[in-house]
Amino acid sequence: MIVFNKKPFLIADISVNFYNLAREEEISYLEAAKYLIEQARDCGIDAVMFQSFSAENVLSRDSSAYDRLDVDSINSYFDDFKKYDVFGVGEYKQLSEYCHSIGMVFLSTPLDFESADYLEEFLDVYQIASSDITNIPFIQHIARKNKPILLSTGAATIMEIQNAVRAIEEVSTVDIVIMHSILSFPTDYRDANLLMIKDLALNFPEYEIGYSDHTSADDEMLVLTTAFNYGATVIEKHFTFDKNMESDDSCYAMDPDDVIKFKRNVLFLSKINGRINKQPLICESYARKEFRKSIVADRDIGKGEVIGSSDIAYKRPGTGIEPFRLDEVIGKTATEDILKDSLITFDKIK
Known about the structure:
- With 350 residues, this protein is an alpha/beta fold.
- The protein folds into two domains: 9-273, Aldolase class I (TIM Barrel, Alpha-Beta Barrel), CATH 3.20.20.70; 282-348, Antifreeze-like/N-acetylneuraminic acid synthase C-terminal domain (Type Iii Antifreeze Protein Isoform Hplc 12, Alpha-Beta Complex), CATH 3.90.1210.
- Helices cover 34% and strands 14% of the residues.
- It is built from twelve helices and ten strands.
- It has helices at 17-25, 29-42, 55-58, 74-82, 89-101, 113-119, 136-143, 158-171, 196-203, 222-229, 256-273, 285-290; strands spanning 9-13, 47-52, 105-110, 126-128, 149-152, 176-181, 208-213, 234-238, 294-297, 312-315.
- It has an eight-stranded parallel beta sheet. It has a two-stranded antiparallel ribbon with strand order 9-10.
């Protein structure tokens, strides 16, 4: 089950950064989104991700506020969420067409049924947010569209993930990427728990495993690099061209320089990981011959003498009889004089 024919497949989550860019530069939201898409393309990112939603369809009157938003009432939380609800089907269609025109993959995470439906026309792969991991009716609604699914698993148990996967497979045969994620913004490094990627691979061996990252971009991009090295083939991270820009998620976004570092790390990993099957390499040919040991005479052995265990030693180079063939030497008769410290070869014994 492979959704994208590239490893790693890197996704830039534009999220709400287009909103803040538009406000700072006094340009339209669509222009800001396209600018971020261009920035993502130019540094080698494969796809961009947005969130599609209507605030009224997502939040109930009982919704509580995230502490990080620093709001003190339900209404202010709704207003803060609502302000990012600026794109609809027309804008997302334009963004999708723009992505295709410049060789980028367009992705979006629908947060409600209406968004899931209008995205179907121009979306090739759906993402299901961690917040919907137990929303089985919504999961099956998306699965019936028969398009591959990135299933985010933040704050989920293995059983909840199994239930979600089962729900998808009850109504569809689509490919699924199970995305490790931590539902904490930003995620402390100690909470990243990248070993969970390996646990997901053990629990879901038939599925591709990915990683959606919410940690702050570290100096050498070791979080994403480690996630890839642990087996995450699809990697998603929030993206901005300027991490100093005021934004709700800029503190855990990557910028173009971070992407370049990550891609450099991946290239280095591809060099040092090499092949899986253990076997001698060409670069080891000399050392294999010169550094290994052979059976040598531990004393001068005269022609006609029977060779005993006290007559031999094991020394370099490894171009003679290998020590594991000792039984083929002990008890044999020397057919010529063999000087101490010289190789015992089969043409010298019988």
